[in-house]
Amino acid sequence: MFGRSRSWVGGGQGKSKSIHSLDHLKYMYHVLTKNTTVTDHNRNLLVETIRSITEILIWGDQNDSSVFDFFLEKNMFAFFLNILRQKSGRYVCVQLLQTLNILFENISHETSLYYLLSNNHVNSIIVHKFDFSDEEIMAYYISFLKTLSLKLNNHTVHFFYNEHTNDFALYTEAIKFFNHPESMVRIAVRTITLNVYKDVRMCIDLWDTVFLMRKVSLDNQHMLHYIRDKTAVPYFSNLVWFIGSHVIELDKCVQTDEEHRNRGKLSDLVAEHLDHLHYLNDILIINCEFLNDVLTDHLLNRLFLPLYVYSLVNHEQAKLLPLVPRHATCPSLHLSTKLLSQTEDRKISPQVSLYLLSQVFLIIHYQPLVHSLADVILNGDLSVFSAQAEQDVQKSCKHG
Question: For the segment 112-130, what is each residue's pLDDT rounded down to a tens digit?
Answer without folding.
Answer: 899 899 888 999 999 999 9
